[in-house]
Specification:
homodimer, 406 residues, Dehydroquinate synthase-like, alpha domain, two-stranded antiparallel sheet, 8 strands, 12% strand
Chain lengths: 406, 406
């Protein structure tokens, strides 16, 4: 059964080599006169990327102010600074030069610049954003899909909260995707990014209440491509075509496409991971890899047919006695094959040096931390997370425990 | 090798049962105060659909005027009428209630309402549209993808021309896709629509100058789904899920997604078909089915590896001695399997009662007509069509001749 859905991806994508020089004309076509350029690491400046951006903006008589310093798990503190600058300088667009953290931070500034109250209200769900400045993106890392998504996740150092705000008005006006900008990304960040991309489709694919055949086909094709290209990049980080495939997969995996017609989005693994990176500041994709297998084994009984389909279509698991057609196969047999698919996924994570347990990710982690994370995850989410299987506080703790020391 | 690309699909999609009632709130969210409702057959009125549309608009205090009478291969004459009404009544949005012909006609009116000159200029490429009224869509037939595409094709009865105008400003603001509205579509229109959908991906998939792996995966998944559901609908026209799959496939197949990173779009078969339906007023999808196999056999030598991939991944052709891996296979073997894939595609067309020759489609057609069509196709296109293989006037004639009486 196909479920009703909305699909809205207004972001103009400009993909390919030598596309950074188009930033001026793109920003101008969206009416920009003065922009805030928001960025993270000094890599953007050292590489000469920032000069290209400035030159292109100058060609179109667009003024700019700069704000760097975004870190992974971007901080609210810097967002407040950005909002102050945006208001004081009267900027009419935020341009994010970086990966998901920079874009998420830019989105938060874009909300705040058009809001008189505290932007954190939107993340606490006390209020919802009605307006935002347009955001333009030059993407330097494939992972979060924020360059096309409606999502922004910000960490509050003071309260140790890591919270998301989803709103269509934050979908970027345009995003420039030049695969060559991702060539110098370290192996760990590349692999963690690939896991995050894969997971954005997992969160939509594993559903217990109906799905769409076309969406399954698209999701499976995307997952196969990401796995294939992750392995290629582990072998050869300079494989430009594989970088390109991963970059575009990142945008499509989280713009809504891979969930159309499926029941709900699960995102339980994401929410469990948010507590992990809020507490230990780990890389999001690595946190997801450490948790997913445990989540999957915990929920497989609710939809063995989805895990079976995943195992056979994506992970190349063949029916174990070779002659079981889909019509004949029992739920038990589906589960058996589904579990092999989960195992194969964890083997894939290992092959690209991603962790598959919490101890492996955070050697100092203690059982008491799990209780704490389950409490916070439960409190923040109003007691329940997930859609494929709805999980309460005890379920969350069970999954953390399963993932603790596998 | 991946090619640079732009991807831009701003249309807000609202998909599913009972979504027609959202037309008022959607139109209102795009600022509509007075709209022109454009439609085709009286079916929209008889079915009660038009009443639902009117009621929903009235709920949001949106005024409307009506213009019906759009026919397949929509006529310029009616477009002029629509432009007059739109200007006189000062409407701020065109709402298309129908299939591709109605939407294409609505787009032409939307261009013309914001233009002082003759809207046909845009189709003759004498000028390009700078502005258009927003278009909203209630889709009643899956086929052209116009509900999400930048394309509009209009027929000029006086000059016997059928010409297209592509511009991103004509991409609809929103489209409502309710599969139940397509349940009563006659079998022939259903099948022709499925061929058109398939062909929009074919035109992007068969390329000789580079492609993207992720796009191939998405394209192949879409093609498998369309073929599968076309056959389901031939058996059971009331299969609502199959209607839904086809409806969404229609939008995705022509919004640009299935060509990202591939070299050029071919669209030679489409252009050859335009001359056919301009001359004989045949159903577009049926015309495409009658021509495609001949086009494919004519160009296969330029990219046997694409036809081979298509044959094995989409048409279930297995390597003929069972043990040829992709790396080992020669171009000759690829072509051999590719030709089997083309044959299987034509068998599929036949299975859903679509023609695979021109004689079958237009029994009265004469060899002289082919010369005439090749002349017109060549003249209109400036001498050449296609991208996979560039075709001149003699190539066009050869393909028409191959398709004449197979």
């Amino acid at each position: 059964m196909i479920n009703n859905f909305n699909y809205y991806t207004p972001t103009k994508i400009v993909f390919g080599d030598n596309t950074v020089c188009k930033i001026g004309s793109l920003a101008s076509s969206f009416g920009a006169k003065k922009v805030l350029i928001h960025y993270g690491s000094p890599r953007a400046i050292k590489s000469g990327l920032m000069d290209s951006v400035k030159n292109s903006l100058e060609d179109f008589n667009i003024n700019y102010v700069l704000l760097g310093g975004v870190v992974p798990n971007p901080r609210l503190e810097l967002v407040y600074q950005g909002i102050d600058i945006a208001k004081k300088e009267n900027v009419d667009m935020i341009i994010a030069v970086g990966g998901g953290s920079v874009i998420d931070s830019a989105k938060a500034i874009a909300y705040g610049a058009k809001y008189d109250g505290d932007v954190w209200d939107f993340y606490l769900k006390k209020s919802s954003p009605k307006e935002a400045l347009p955001v333009g993106v030059i993407l330097t890392m494939a992972a979060t899909g924020s360059e096309m998504s409606n999502s922004s996740v910000i960490s509050n150092d003071e309260t140790k909260e890591k919270l998301g705000c989803n709103s269509d008005i934050s979908r970027p006006a345009f995003s420039i995707l030049d695969p060559s900008l991702t060539l110098t990304l370290p192996a760990y960040q590349t692999a963690a990014g690939c896991v995050d991309i894969l997971m954005h489709t997992f969160e939509r694919y594993f559903t217990s209440k109906g799905n769409m055949l076309l969406t399954d086909e698209i999701a499976e094709g995307l997952m196969r491509t990401v796995i294939d290209c992750s392995i290629k990049l582990k072998e050869n980080p300079k494989d430009l075509d594989a970088r390109g495939e991963i970059l575009w997969a990142g945008s499509l995996s989280h713009n809504g496409l891979t969930g159309c017609g499926n029941a709900g989005n699960d995102f339980a693994t994401h929410k469990l991971e948010h507590e992990l990176s809020a507490k230990f500041d780990v890389t999001h994709g690595a946190g997801l890899a450490a948790l997913w297998g445990s989540w999957a084994r915990y929920v497989i009984d609710i939809c063995p047919e989805r895990f079976y389909r995943f195992a056979t279509k994506v992970m190349n698991i063949s029916s174990y006695n070779g002659d079981i057609s889909k019509e004949d196969i029992s739920k038990e047999e589906m589960k058996k094959l589904g579990l092999l698919g989960i195992e194969a996924t964890e083997d894939f994570f290992k092959s690209i040096d991603m962790p598959t347990s919490l101890k492996e990710l955070v050697p100092s982690i203690k059982i008491g931390d799990l209780e704490d994370m389950a409490d916070r995850c439960s409190n923040i989410s109003g007691g329940h997370i997930g859609s494929c299987k709805i999980l309460g506080r005890e379920d969350m703790l069970s999954i953390y425990k399963m993932a603790f020391d596998r």
